[in-house]
Amino acid sequence: MSWCTMITIVRKGQAKDVMAAARRAGAPGGTVCLAKGTATSTILSALGIGDTKQEVLTSVIESKDSERILEAVHSVKAKGVSIIIDAARDGSMEVRDMDSGWVLIEVICEEGYSEDIMAAARKAGAEGGTVIDAHGTSTEDDVKFFGAPLVPEKEILMIVISRDKAEAVMEAISSMEALKKKGMGIVFSIPVRSFMNLGR
């Protein structure tokens, strides 16, 4: 049995309807995180009205049901994006050829850095992203043992981008001076098997 993960990013209050549609199509359940979208213009950002409250719904589903579930999610009146990436639930992972033309870039960084990272990503071709507040699992003993300042408060920046722009964005992010210090952050990308805009 192979598995995949559906990640759906919608406006706050819409994840419940999305999950209901996904359940009717065979999804077993999911987890909702509160997040914020990144401002799309300098003027909106300066006025403090560019950021939007969002919800990120994550659900591990069987690969054989993924397209049916994605279509069910698409039928919901919601504004956002839904992607499917391969996942392993039992420790094994079947590698498949994925050619949706999209990539999910994730950056896990110290709290307060996501805006600067998103600015660098935009200069390299990204249009926007979603920020989730999070925290690390380090303890005071870990910090003393490793000798590096590890801050528990983190942010996860998620950017869904076309594959042809992904390398430039990854390079722009990884070359930032602030991220070169030990323990400051990590950036990685995951190929997207399926991609769908919602409410457009």
Tell me about this structure.
The protein is of the alpha+beta class and about 200 residues long. The protein has two domains: about 5-90 and about 195-200, Alpha-Beta Plaits (2-Layer Sandwich); about 100-190, Alpha-Beta Plaits (2-Layer Sandwich). About 25% of the residues lie in helices and about 35% in strands. It contains six helices and nine strands. Strands 8-5-7-6-2-3-1-4-9 form a nine-stranded antiparallel sheet, with helices on one face. The longest helix is centred in the last third of the chain and has 12 residues, at about 165-175. The two termini are about 35 Å apart. The model has no long low-confidence stretch (mean pLDDT about 85).
Keywords:
single chain, 200 residues, alpha+beta, Alpha-Beta Plaits, 2 domains, 9-stranded antiparallel beta sheet
Task: Describe what is shown at a glance.
The protein has helices spanning 15-24, 42-47, 66-74, 114-123, 140-146, 163-174, and strands at residues 3-11, 31-37, 53-62, 80-87, 102-110, 130-135, 153-162, 185-192, 194-198. The protein is an alpha+beta fold.
